[in-house]
Every structure is written in C-alpha cells, then in structure tokens.
Amino acid sequence: MKTYQFPEGFLWGGATAANQIEGGFREGNKGLNIADVLPGGKGRLKVLLEPGFNFEVNKEKYTYPNHEAIDFYHRYKEDIALFAEMGFKVFRMSIAWTRIFPNGNELEANEEGLAFYDRVFDELYKNGIEPVVTISHYEMPVNLVKKYGGWRSREVVTFFERYVTTIFNRYKGKVKYWMTFNEINSGLEFPIMGLGFAIKEESDKYQSTFQAYHHQFVASGIAVKLCREMMPDAKIGCMILYAPVYPYDCSPENVMYALEESRLFNYFCGDVQVRGEYPAFIKRYFKEHNIQLEIQEGDLELIKENTVDYIGFSYYMSRTEKIDKKPMDMGQGNILGGVINPFLKASDWGWAIDPLGLRITLNELYDRYRIPLFIVENGLGAKDEVAPDGTINDDYRIDYLRNHIKAMGEAIEDGVELMGYTPWGCIDLVSMSTGEMSKRYGFIFVDKQDDGSGTLERKKKKSFFWYKDVIATNGGKL
C-alpha cells in the first residue's frame, strides 16, 4: 500500500457544532436559536416553511433532539479525554451565539455562557488539544429571526460585531484558529439555517438572499479586521460547503451548465471572502435576476482589505448536473440535488461517495485561491450496530475515511497546501439535515436513539483505534 507524507504539524482532529452536541438548551441563561426550534425527523427543514410557523418550541406536536443532544454541556470532560486518547491535535467546535447573547441584541454578554466556554477551552488545553472555533454555525438567535428578519437586516451586522468583539476579548489567549460562518454558501440551498429566514415567495428569493449575503460579507470583514487587531498571531478563515460539479456528459450545454452551477455555489462566497470583491460572473447574475444590493459607503473597501487567512471547507459528495433533468434522473438524498452519477455508490442516506472528488476539490480550490486549505468536515453517516459483545465494527467508515485521506495525500503531492483534517461528527451527534441520531458519523458511539431513549453511554468504535493509529503515524498508517 502506498504511504503518504503529511506535513509536519498537520492538524489532525475532529469536528462538531454546539447545537448538535451540547444540549442544555435552556441552561446557563441560554436563549433560543434556530436549531432549538427545529423538530426531529427527515422533514425538519420543511417544517420551517409551513404557514404560520412561529419559531417556537411546540412539544405537543414535535420532538426536539437538539435540546439534550449528547449532553456535551455536562459531559465535555469525558468527551475531551476520549479525543485526547485518539491523539487529536485540534478540536473543531462552535460557540453558541445564544449562550453569549441570549436574544442576540443585548448590550451586555451573559457571563454564564462565557464561563462555560472558558471551561471547555481550559479542558482542551489540559489535554493538549487546540480549539478551532466557528463563530456562527447554524444557530442564529430566534429573536433576530423574528424581530429583524435574520441577515436581511443591516442591524444584525451591529449585533454580530458586538458578539465577535466579546468572544475575541474573552478568548484571545485561548483560541488561535477561527472561522466566521459555517458553510456560508449553503444559504443558497437552505437559507433558514445560514441566513436566518425562510423564503416563502419565489419573488422574494433573489433580492433577499443576496442582500443577506452582502451583510454577512460585511460582518465577515469586520470579524477579520477585529481578529487581526486583537489577536495578531491568530488565523481566521471562511468556511464553505464544497461539492465539485460534474457535467453528466460531454455535451457543451451540460458542461456550461455545470460550470455555472459550480461558480455560483462553490466560488461566489469564496471569491468575496478570499479575493475581496464580487466576481464578474455574479454581476451578470444580479443583472439577469434584477438584484440591486444596498451597499453602504465603505462596505466594499472593508471587504477588500480584510480577506481571510485560509479556507475551511466541508466535503461530503460530488454533484452531477444536466440541463434537462427528469424525476427519474434525480439522486435520492443527495442534499445538493443533481442527477444520479452511475459511476458512484451512495451512503445509507443516498449521499454520493466520491473520494477522488476530494482530490479534485482540493486542486480546484488551491488553483483558484492559492491560500492554505483546511478540511473541517468530511465523513460517512451510517447506521451502526452494537454487537452482542459490545463492539461496534464500522469497517465501512474506516474504508470511507481511508480512501478520502489517500485523496488528501495525492493532493498534497499535487502541490496543495493543506493545513489539517477534522472529520465530521467525531463523536455521534444529532444530524442537522434530518434530526436523527441513527445517522452516525463518529469514532465514538453515543447510546442515544431517535426516539430520545438511551443512557448516553460512550463506546469506542473500531474506527476509534484505527484513527488513533492514523494520527500517531501522521497519516503513515492507513
């Protein structure tokens, strides 16, 4: 088997999000965020579009798996010890905005929330692990959704700046790696999570979406500027969801269509946050969709002067496209749409499995931007079974990760500058897209079921010991 040489100091670890692991959704004076009102079940995102949905908790009608999640809020020491046993160099996590500012628009921060993350960061350092912190990960305060319409409102930029200033001041000696908005481009597919509003009228789609994006780009520029002023030794990146887009065939029309889809989804946000300006292709798109952004004086200069240090990104699947899609062509469960690729197998949830697509992704991103890349999400959601002897033999997950790490090694040989790798859901957590616990990603099994039952006991899967060896050998033993 070919061995790969990963850079010295490569950042091996794992990734999570506050709203999917913490629980304790009302403890420590925490306020309601979007994830708190998301019900469990495969149709959870569609619920937000129902007429009359008021972004409130309705336990008579729905279940809410995020409310307890895996109880990291109380069990973080136990979990961090397990991460340390695997040899994690870094742990990607997020700060819940509503633990710091429960309603999002307060003038004073919530000390209990700040103190909680102090304890988490201290425990990580005690175990030799650096935190990689996402500032906003699909958890906008519900108050900002209901009162201001999410990121459509310019006022939210001010609230975000207050939040960022607060956490930078508090944790400037404890966090060296930051990212601004999780999968910022995902708002093009499901704006409720990334942009803080639901599109209910097609006529409202384009103007609202891209005005909200402009406000996020301004907020990102502010965060980068503050980071450089307050923590000159820290690194701050953007974070995008990347899925290479393949044309279904060599028809020039399908090749062009795939290019246009890729530019809009994969490159639009990166171009603004890395290159510091709106790309030429989006200006044509604005013209064709009658989008006229409200841009305040100084916005474009702020964005241009405060570009990110690195690109964090998630990679789960590729996407195959053609113009004349028919229902029988569509992939089942491929969350970004597209048509079935006959050359690829799929996960239990219908997500295309494409390790070579990761090498393609790394090369496409590095060729375009020439700044360091960081794979901060990648993994296989699967149904794990506990054997009678208590073991969990997840060889399918090991195979999936091994093949993706090989692709990373090939990309490094191609000349790509890759900082690190933090597989998603290093410990089982609540699925964002479906609210299920049965869609498991972790090296660590958590005894929690879709119906809410379970002891929350942690168990090491076979992949736990495999990944421990991968880290110990810096990718030499796969």
Automatic annotation (TrEMBL):
InterPro entries: GH, GH_1_N_CS, Glyco_hydro_1, Glyco_hydro_1_AS. It holds the Pfam family Glyco_hydro_1. Its EC number is 3.2.1.86. Signal peptide: none annotated. It comes from the Bacteria. The keyword Hydrolase applies. GO terms for molecular function: 6-phospho-beta-glucosidase activity. Keywords: Glycosidase, Hydrolase. It is an enzyme of class 3 (hydrolase). The active site is at residue 377. Belongs to the glycosyl hydrolase 1 family. NCBIfam families: PRK09593.1, PRK09852.1. This is 6-phospho-beta-glucosidase. It comes from Niallia oryzisoli.
